[in-house]
Amino acid sequence: MEGETVPNRRIPCHKAPADLNRERRKLMSSVPSTSRPSLLDRAAAAPWWLLCSGLAVAMALSILLVGFRLPYWVHADQDLVLAYHGLLFGDGLPQEYFDHPGYGYFLVIDAWYRLLHALGFLPVATLSALPPGSDVAATQAVWQSLVQAGRALSILLTAAFAVGYTTLLRGLVGDRRVALLAGILLAFGVGLTAQGRQMRTDLLSAGFVVLGLLLVLRAVRPAGDGRCGGASLFQLALGGLLVGLAIVTKVQAVFLAMGLPMAAILFGRRAEPGGAPGQDWGVAVLAGLAAGAAAVPAFGLIQAGLAGWGRAIYPYSPVGGGLSGGGYQSIVAGWVLVGILVHAVVHRVPASRAVAGAAAVLLGLAVGLLALDIRWNEQNAIAVANFVEHMFVFSSWRHGAALNSQGQVMGEGTLALLLAGIGRTLAIRTIVLHPDNIPQTIVVEWFALAGAAVLWRRGQRLAAMQALFLLLVAWGLEALFSLRGFQRAYAAYTDPLAILSAAWVLARMPGLLERTKPRRWILGGVALVVVAAHAWPIIETRRLPNPVTHCEWIPIYMPKVAPFPFCR
After folding, report:
1. Average pLDDT in the 195-216 region?
2. Three-state DSSP class for 5?
3. What tens digit of pLDDT does each residue of 430-459 get?
4. Which own/partner pairs from 341-348 qualify as long-range (CB within 8 Å, at least 24 positions apart)?
């Protein structure tokens, strides 16, 4: 090789061919590589704050250029309802919408409107300050500004979601390139591209629970010297807090949260104790006391919700089998506790660390649930405590013929719909059997499946199982969500799992990013997702819906505002 010196070392001729090959490889490995770093390598080597800023700016420009200035009524459900509740809270009036229940988002949009109004960017931040309905021009201008302010909040939330996800994933997989590609896929996947152009409670809920999952995975896979110390406990507590906030924002987040114990078992690894046994027990006692102090009032809120079952704003149907009124809720709590115990046994976690970890999770979760007390309304507690019955109400509205006659949640109708949802979810992955509503991330899922198969054949079976677990959870959530009907926004819960699965595989096959041809295929797949992300938003700008279709439900969900101009 020109410019390089290869040691002039004689290879004995009596060696076997295999020995000769090993000797030649050893000699060649001593020669420094002259290959230039790829564009991906150079990009990933940039300061992390710069990469995160670039990702956030790209997301913001995408939304600002396509979709941000659409009329305020384009996404009336949920834009108008959520903006209306920001104004309600601004006037100190009680919450009126409890479908999700949406409570966490209402707190955020209220604070956002107040901030923008104080800075002079928003003319109205309270319901009482709305112009009279007779002034059509002023009414349209005010609602346009309110909805666009909500879209600006969605830009900030989606960017924070993507940046937080990318940063946590970087520490989890240990490869900046993989984390960067995963962040781009999430930023321009169907979930966040849909959420960023409208106001939805799913965005805040999905962001909280997904980041909670990543924090738990970071906590059970300590980096560096493998010591499980205060950082892991903080991550567990913060993860629990985010899960609690996700549930009070939209209760369907509980299904992804229920996968966290299994994820901790499957992804955890043995860690060395962080300190002396006596010190560890001291930390465990302090964490337990703090958790108890928060859990007692939080449990009181859940008890109030259970006691109010019969006063729900939407009449509930019993789950069946005597599980309502605390039955299945106890099963969920037991599932989490068993998961913590199994994780401690499998990964040989010292008893003191296991107790401290469980207390940290409980502390965070309890504090998240205590947010219900900031603007107390019994209906929020009822929805959170009875989440299965609450979600069944809206499934029965959509599938009344199949569900209303069974008189309870569990029944043949529910089972048939779930099986149909599973079949639909699997058929979509073939494209041929179900060519409608194909997710943009289908290529990501195919890559994860193929990569898991390769890892299994290489003997890395745990990594393959971990990747498949993430995909199965994503598909399970999609099947459950089908009970409410297909919505692109629900992908905010499932896209991060599919992308994490693919990232998990890719991090264990770094050669794919080091060789030119496979790297180009991977970058091409990422580019395809980014381009496809803009297809539906562009189509949407050219196919504006008729706002009159919303005039039937607006007076029900927004009774304190005058009829909109398009409803007269």
Report:
1. 95
2. coil
3. 887 877 777 778 899 999 999 999 999 999
4. 342/261, 342/265, 343/220, 343/261, 343/264, 343/265, 343/268, 346/265, 346/268, 347/220, 347/268, 347/269, 347/270, 347/271, 348/270
